[in-house]
Amino acid sequence: MTKITFVEANGTVHETQAENGASVMETALKNSVPGIVAECGGACTCATCHVYVGGEWTDKVGAPSAMEEDMLDFAFEVKPSSRLSCQIIVSDEFDGLVVNIPEQQG
Amino acid sequence: MNETHITTDVVVIGAGPVGLFAVFELGLLDLKCHLIDILDRPGGQCAELYPEKPIYDIPGFSVISGQELTDNLMKQIEPFGAVFHYNRMINNVKKLDSGGFKVIDDEGQVYECKVVVVAAGGGSFQPKRPPVPGIEVFEDKSVFYSVRRMEEFKDQDIVIVGGGDSALDWVLSLQPLARSMTLVHRRDNFRAAPDSVNKMKELVAAGKMKLILGQIGELNGENGMLSSMTIKSADEVLSIPVTRLLPFFGLTMKLGPVADWGLDLENNLITVDTEKFETSVPGVFAIGDINTYPGKLKLILSGFHEGALMSQAAKRIISPDERIIFQYTTSSTKLQKKLGVK
Ligand SMILES: Cc1cc2nc3c(=O)[nH]c(=O)nc-3n(C[C@H](O)[C@H](O)[C@H](O)COP(=O)(O)OP(=O)(O)OC[C@H]3O[C@@H](n4cnc5c(N)ncnc54)[C@H](O)[C@@H]3O)c2cc1C
Ligand code: FES
């Protein structure tokens, strides 16, 4: 199990235990974290699972693929730390990961 | 406004995979259908959200893509001559005193029918609204999510936001009639066809339009009419004049008008029985992702089954005196004739 913390736009913190191999989006849904819509169920075709991976984690988690970068065009308030959470797969290296959820997914 | 009155047996709201297959099952029972969808083509989620992605649980196909499934369904239902109405949203379903229903779309077209099948899936696909405070007051006055009438844009200061084909196509079509044209996109990389991107860049180089890399900030104006807006770029906030704004951020599924038709709902889904898939209003059925019942699975497979049972019940409403004989397409010459098998 890997610890992942979600922070809502209003500051509410959700600490979760994620299963390795699952996506960060799936972890959010499984733990009823509000603010992750995931309309397409993780197919990287909706951009409603947008999160910010800030600070030291930006580099550790890595940059989005070209396909993900394209989909980010459909998200709002995109920042350099923006990622689509369905495209981040949980592994041991991400223990302690903190992701921030934007105010609106669209 | 289109004033013609369409009369048919069944109106199917939604042309997703489940609505499409319902045409087949209804057709075997000689029921004629009109299908209406807000999208510009059939296939619902399969065509809009994952046309190229594989589906592994359609019986008989070890793998099939969303688009292939849609194309196959369209071919399968061809013999039944269903009439499709795209780019239309059904706003209203009204019960008539004479029995039957009046279904009305957003262009005022009236469809009169005996049975309504709601196959609205996850709801209607609607344009994503940028999270800009107060944007609602400008919508349909100076903020538009699609172009219905080009004249609305003549001699205007147009700002288009986005980097896909819709954004670029409208930049190229509207630039000649605009007073000024600005394209706003968050990065210098466009998903749109390279040819359109090159044409846009030529216009920028010739000083005929502007390209700003940034994201929507605030909107300013009065009585729904925009006058200026701000654009947040990497290191500054710009203010630019705008009288028409077209944001293109793709589509999202919203339950939409389905909620207003007087059907019993549970968590935004229409409750139905599992014998006929009929709603709380007799004569209105709901199949596919839009319905709920104990044990419901949101699978295409389940939607197909629901369509088959629904059709039997629809037939009993439309032809109460006719005895329905259960037949196989393999062996029934009658069914094969309907399918155009030679
Ligand atoms: C990425 C992804 C992968 C999937 N993979 C699978 C899979 O492997 N197997 C599987 O079985 N299922 C899968 N699904 C689910 C499957 O796509 C849905 O179950 C299926 O599309 C439901 O079909 P439907 O016809 O009920 O609704 P939809 O496909 O949602 O179509 C409904 C249509 O109705 C229209 N509509 C709604 N309201 C109105 C209105 N008021 N007026 C006009 N039109 C309206 C909408 O625009 C839409 O086109 C997947 C879904 C996604 C997103
Ligand atoms: S869930 Fe749709 S893009 Fe991530």
Rg from alpha-carbon coordinates of chain A? 12 Å
Estimated structural class of chain B: alpha/beta
Question: What is the structural class of chain A?
Answer: alpha+beta
Counting DSSP E segments of at least 2 residues, the number of strands of chain A comes to: 5
Reported by name, the CATH topology of chain A is Ubiquitin-like (UB roll)
Strand coverage percent of chain A: 15-25%
Describe the structure.
The complex is a heterodimer of chains A (106) and B (342). With 106 residues, chain A is α+β, with helices and mostly antiparallel strands. Chain A has a single domain (2-100), classed as Beta-grasp domain (Ubiquitin-like (UB roll), Roll). Chain A contains three helices and five strands; from the N terminus they run E-E-H-E-H-H-E-E. In chain A, the strands form two sheets. Chain A has a three-stranded mixed beta sheet with strand order 2-1-5, with helices on one face. Chain B is α/β, with parallel strands linked by helices and 342 residues long. Chain B folds into two domains: 4-125 and 252-339, 3-Layer(bba) Sandwich (FAD/NAD(P)-binding domain); 129-249, FAD/NAD(P)-binding domain (3-Layer(bba) Sandwich). Helix content of chain B is 22%, strand content 29%. In chain B, strands 1, 2, 5, 6, 7, 8 and 20 form a seven-stranded mixed beta sheet that branches. Chain B has a four-stranded parallel beta sheet with strand order 12-11-10-16, covered by helices on one side. A three-stranded antiparallel beta sheet of chain B has the order 13-14-15, with no helix packed on it. Chain B is elongated. The A-B interface holds A 39-40, 43, 45-48, 69-70, 72-78, 103-104, 106 and B 49-50, 53, 122, 128-131, 162-164, 185-187, 189, 191, 215, 249-250, 252-253. The complex binds flavin-adenine dinucleotide and FE2/S2 (inorganic) cluster (FES).
